[in-house]
Amino acid sequence: MRILYFHQYFSTREGSTGTRSYELARRLVERGHKVTMVCGCLKEARGVLGAVDRSCVNRGTVDGIDVVELGVPYSNHLGLAARTRAFLRFAFRSVRIASSERYDILFATSTPLTVALPGIAMKLRPWGRRPFVFEVRDLWPELPRAMGGVPGPILCGMGVLEWAAYHSADGVIGLAPGIVEGIRRKSPGGLPVELVPNGCDLDIFKPGRRCDLDLPGISPTDCVALFTGAHGKANGLGAVLDAAAVLKARGRGDIKLVFVGDGMMKPLLVKRADAEKLDNCLFFDTVPKTRLAAITGAADVGLMILDNIPAFYRGTSPNKFFDYISSGLPVLNNYPGWLADMIAENNCGIAIPPGDPEAFATALEKLADSRELRAAMGANARKLAELSFNREVLADRFIRFLEDVSAKRVVPARIRPFWTRA
Asked: CA-CA distances (angstroms) from residue 322 to 78, 113, 161, 183?
């Protein structure tokens, strides 16, 4: 089976952003399928093939994956207008590629939602139509509408594009229960829908030793609470600084709040921490995935932080959560929803209510003051990772779905919470 795979943010393990598409594409190749990955030039991916010029198209092979890297640069520091231009430029160039490539099934994964345009365009052709599978990582336009700041005409355009994607697709994959529920509400009846959440790369992210953590500003006796990933508006990282202020007032300088990543809000967070003399907050640049795994495995607590927006409660599947549990870290989660429920069900961390810095600080103190509690919760986290979110198992689920859609076998729409205990 020849898969034409579109992901604007594609990255390998050498990059510093999510590698879901790389891991799934690599496993497709291992099963004998041919994968052509069409991607943009993502700053955080450190250039998969090095395309930087806007007119450039680089093509090469990465671990058996045929990669077509378009010179469409993107960074999470871009504003709305620049992001929109990058999204549209990538989408229109992708349509041209889809028109010229030979494939058996076209697969596109959001965000952005515009990545669905090649699949939609190919379905409009009166000849040579091939199956199209769309993967939804975030519900657009629900999330942008809930967060605010996106003009009405753009939201309207997103709604039209979402409708067209669902009505053009032969199958849809969602990464979280709420995403699948949203797909089923808006898509044609009988459309095959599959839940394939983000997974745990158990061979990369694994429990390490606290003594191996070598970040500056941290002593061997400190408790390290780690946040990794984007520092954007949606992440709501001001809540961590609020808790840091409470911890400092309580004299808990032994609890260090460590941020590894980048994003539009990072300069403001650093400026606030400096202004408030929050020396218990330490900021570090993005690092390659392998280096990030070493840092995560040696930390004490994983911070799963998002802004308090109800659309996030069941509609996100953050990479960092799965990296934390794979590394055997207890997770401190600050918003309700399916992840908070799973943490409570499996006793692998603490879920606190949003907007409560006192509760946030108290939970951190509880974890910092009991090595035994951290060890027990961390062991439960790793067990959850191994039993329910092993990337190998989820890749099997993903590949079967593509094969079934390609062969036009009936795949029932379903939501199966396979991570819950019997």
From this structure: 27, 24, 30, 23
List alpha helices for 66-218, DSSP H. Answer: 80-100, 117-124, 142-147, 152-168, 177-186
Residue entry with tokens 């009936």: 410
What pLDDT score does 43 carry?
A: 62
Helix (H) or strand (E) holding 76: none
Contact 177, 367 (CB under 8 A): no
Do the strands 65-74 and 57-62 form a parallel or antiparallel pair, or are they unpaired?
antiparallel
| Residue numbers in the chain where pLDDT is lower than 70 | 43-47, 50-55, 128, 409-422
143 CB-near residues (< 8 Å, 6+ apart): 234, 309, 311, 312, 315
B/e letters for 294-316, b = 16+ CB within 10 Å, e = fewer, are bbbbbbbbbbbbbbebebbbbbb
pLDDT at 54: 60
User: Do 47 and 126 sit in the same domain of this protein?
Assistant: yes
The rounded Cα 296 to chain-centroid distance in angstroms is 16
Tokens of 60: 């090469």
3-state secondary structure of 264: coil
pLDDT at site 416: 44
Range of the domain at 99: 2-199+390-406
Q: Output the pLDDT for position 7.
A: 97
User: pLDDT at position 44, please?
Assistant: 55
Q: Which long-range contacts (CB under 8 A, 24 or more apart) does 157-161 make?
A: 158/113, 161/113, 161/114, 161/116, 161/117, 161/120
At 255, which amino acid appears? Answer: I
**CB neighbour list of residue 187: distance below 8 Å, 6 or more residues apart:** 166, 167, 169, 172, 193
Q: What is the largest CA-CA distance in the chain?
A: 70
* Residues 253 and 302 grouped into a single domain: yes
Single pTM value for the model: 0.91
Which residue is listed with tokens 């795949």?
A: 411
Strand partners, 228: 260
- List the one residue out of 206, 205, 164, 203 whose CA is nearest residue 187: 164
Q: Quick one: 163 and 66 in the same domain?
A: yes
